[in-house]
Amino acid sequence: MNKAPQVAIIMRSKNEQPYVRDTLERFSRQTFTDYVLYNVDSGSTDGTLDVVRQHNPRPENVVEIASEAYVPGPVLNTMIEKTTEPIIVLLNADAIPLDDHWLERLLAPIVAGEADATMSRQVVRGSARFIDQYDYERAYSEKNLERDADFFSAVACAFRRKLWEDTKFYTDGYAEDLAWCKACREKGARFRIVTDSVVEHSHNYSIRGLYGKRYRHGIAYVHIHNERPRFFRQCVQCVREIARDLLHALRKGRLDTVPYNVLHRVVIHLAYYRGEREGRRQQESNRKGGKT
User: Fold this and answer.
1) Contact 123, 136 (CB under 8 A)
2) Could you give the CA distance from residue 226 to residue 207 in angstroms, rounded to a whole number?
3) Interval 110-165: pLDDT, tens
4) Which CATH superfamily is 7-200 part of?
5) Which residues partner with 63 through β-bridges?
6) HEC string of the chain?
7) For residues 199 and 98, is the Cβ–Cβ distance under 8 A?
8) Cα(185)–Cα(182) distance, rounded to whole angstroms?
9) Could you tell me the pTM of the whole model?
10) Residues 155, 92: contact at Cβ < 8 Å?
11) Interior CA angle at 138 toward 137 and 140, to 5°?
12) Which of 94, 118, 90, 107 shows the shortest CA–CA distance to 34?
């Protein structure tokens, strides 16, 4: 009698062409094969869903939802509830594993009992902007990982099912992975980045798209950390980062990137601050509603 698969792979997608095919093809060549694939697509219109169906041998494991119904936390919680496997892996449909050992390496610390959750290192695509490449290099450096204990990305990660059963994903907005990591760590969970488990993943956001993403994260930050918006703090951080970016551009001989780099930082911090203000407004409204 064959044993039940030990790992559930949950893949989220929305208009992920042309990357989704590479992701699924490289995924199918992984050395670790004891898994069941689950897909959730939120309104793709570019053929992504057709590619997903070609690669998932179980049609019942392909879930479609409307684009407007997508909120990360609730979607992840719902999809995990559909699974029974003791280990959960999350992989975005546009996060391309860079070798055939990606999954085996990602799972190794969990299987060995050395970690409760792991995440892959991410590298940017060749088409990524200069500033995004710099941000990824800093985010996944050993120095940053030692300093920022709550840093965690659900783009490519794995965790014990028991961890999720004890702490579900944050459902009130975005930054669900950071909120979940913080809550789990506070209960003693062990998180680890696996630097030799690597995926290619990055986005060249428009200025409007960048603003929207950071605005949503600002809202979530207030709810997660219960802190007041601080305009001066955002201004200081923005100036420091602009200066740091300028030095990096000088070292790399890429002064041509400076105008966009400055705009990039200003948009991020402005959006984050306004998001924090909206998050605080929501908190105050909720408190007032609770009193009446």
Assistant:
1) yes
2) 28
3) 999 999 999 999 999 999 999 999 999 988 877 766 665 668 899 999 999 999 99
4) Spore Coat Polysaccharide Biosynthesis Protein SpsA; Chain A (3.90.550.10)
5) 40
6) CCCCCCEEEEEEECCCCCHHHHHHHHHCCCCCCCEEEEEEEECCCCCHHHHHHHHCCCHHHEEEECHHHCCHHHHHHHHHHCCCCCEEEEECCCCEECCCCHHHHHHHHHHCCCCCEEEEEEECCCCCCHHHHHHHHHHCCHHHHHHCCCCCCCCEEEEEHHHHHHCCCCCCCCCHHHHHHHHHHHCCCCEEEEEEEEEECCCCCCHHHHHHHHHHHHHHHHHHHCCCCCHHHHHHHHHHHHHHHHHHHHHHCCHHHHHHHHHHHHHHHHHHHHHHHHHHHHHHHHHHHHHC
7) yes
8) 5
9) 0.90
10) yes
11) 70
12) 107
Reference 168, options 153, 184, 155; nearest CA is 184
> What pLDDT, in 10s, does the model give residues 263-280?
999 999 999 999 999 988
C-alpha gyration radius of the chain = 20
Label residue 171 by pLDDT band (50, 70, 90). Answer: confident
How many whole angstroms separate alpha carbon 280 and alpha carbon 210?
21
Q: What ranges do the domains of the chain cover? A: 7-200, 207-291
